[in-house]
């Protein structure tokens, strides 16, 4: 097996990068385009293994020389794009997002961005998708592979093992694949997606070919057939996989096997698929690394500036700009820096690695400073701070410190020393956000209000809620405390149940910037999911048994927007953009997330006495738009929580509507106006 240049592998790189870029720009057009990264991994595994194995066998392998070549190949363009992206982010992004970008900038200098993103809800999670350096996770995995694999190849190249080298590599491949599938099966898809141990098998899918596990095709017909089958397998993955697929693991096998077949088809006498050797395809493959680096930051930062979905023309323009930057970067940065002497490789490697301290330091500053809020104008900073200032005044004492809160911290409108409250607001952070509006409605009636809110915990009995890390929240204890309040307070007239109902359905679409993934399970039956409607029926039954005289008002979900109005306004103020882009969003995504949850609530409250339901979406989403502002003022403090001022403005009307139905129940109207 020689080291001759293979045009078809550059062509295969072109397929990989084109799939990724098209998927990021037009996800509906190529839903499985993210598997282009897997194609890159297989190619990299083949080329690196071939290089190391041949050098080991010839006795010419140099650790310093190997890593020097890697550094010259990877670092110059990488460093350029990271620093340019960070600089643009300082100008464009608001503090919250800039702090996230800072964290990615710092970890990218260590080639550990993949480890950072294991702390998100996954590759398709909104928080990750807003990070202009998200795509560097794959470079982190690849560089970590380069740290481990040369040593393993050296061990496998030991004379007693050399004859079994390819077989032992295949065993490692299978072990990594099994681990990936186990994690995916257990719901730990984030760790499986970003982790090196669960991706090693993809590199080894190419590595075992380089180690000669399979003989090259003996004739052109066999080679062409393998290439066609491999191409079809990749095409099938591009078309059939999507963000909801259980990936990686077994679902990644077709694309990796297809890539391996295409590589194999070009071994020996086989020329590989002719289309992969065409000049334009090969040319795209040669600039694929730079194109991969540039396209994602441009798409993300442009969307952040516009605060609206990019148009088709804008996306095409950004892709053209990405390609132009890739060509320039390849010619002026990649090619010149790849050349140079190889004597004293460790000293030269140190010089190459030293510039990585710049993104590490710069990213740390952005992260530790919480996004450099002092760079904003006073007006922009005041708007960005609304997430901290226009919230329930009792949020910190009653909600953020719910476990240690004093009873008086969570009571409103009650004179000191008086026992009991007229209204109980029970739920999660959305209930906490609603409370100022409930207080504004109850105060003219002379009623007092108590809040019982716990983060991530719906107002439901008999359920456990687990986060994406499988950690169980203390929701059962919170529900017991709320039910104890209902049972023990003779003054209680009304229970308001409010939560982020779509969250507990754990159903797509997932798009907003604060959309964690949780699983709601039947208590005592781990792994058995509980439906919102079923759990709400059980909760209403429990309340009725304890206090048949108490009335219950269920408040439906707040529409979850595709922007946060305060942050959007701050950005427009800072950049001189039109504030009108922050006033509303297209209703399709918010309603596609809200309406199924509303149906679940209707099913639970139907034909129940002393129970009514109101739906904020009927006020906030009309004429294909959902409001983020009213009369020039934000009504949310982020993308899905009502601000205190928004709650005071909107909630009294919802509460009055619901209470009027409870005073004069009309079964025909219990499911909404």
Descriptive report:
With 673 residues, the protein is an alpha/beta fold. A hairpin with a 2-residue loop joins strand 10 and strand 11 (625-627). Helix 1 packs antiparallel against helix 2. The longest helix is centred in the N-terminal third of the chain and has 30 residues, at 63-92. The model is unreliable at 666-673 (pLDDT under 50).
What's a concise summary of this model?
With 673 residues, this protein is an alpha/beta fold. It contains 29 helices and 13 strands.
- Percent helix, as a range, is 55-70%
Mean pLDDT: 90
Cα Rg: 29 Å
Got a strand count? 13
Instruction: Catalogue the unreliable spans.
Output: 666-673
**Biggest sheet strand line-up:** 1-3-2-5-7-9
Entry keywords:
29 helices; 13 strands; Rossmann fold; 3-stranded antiparallel β-sheet; 2 domains; single chain; elongated; alpha/beta; 673 residues
Task: Give the SSE map.
Elements: H1 7-25, H2 36-58, H3 63-92, H4 95-109, H5 113-117, H6 126-129, H7 137-156, H8 159-162, H9 165-185, H10 189-194, H11 200-210, H12 220-240, H13 253-265, H14 279-286, H15 288-306, H16 312-338, H17 345-353, H18 357-368, H19 378-384, H20 386-389, H21 395-400, E1 411-412, E2 423-427, H22 429-442, E3 449-453, E4 463-467, H23 475-488, E5 494-498, H24 501-505, E6 518-522, H25 532-546, E7 551-555, H26 565-575, E8 584-586, H27 588-605, E9 611-614, H28 617-620, E10 621-622, E11 625-627, E12 629-630, E13 633-634, H29 644-663
Parallel strand pairs: 2-3, 2-5, 5-7, 7-9
Antiparallel strand pairs: 1-3, 4-6, 8-11, 10-11, 12-13
Helix pairs in contact: 1-2, 1-14, 1-15, 2-7, 2-11, 2-13, 3-4, 3-15, 3-16, 3-17, 3-18, 4-18, 9-11, 11-13, 12-13, 15-16, 19-26, 22-29, 25-27
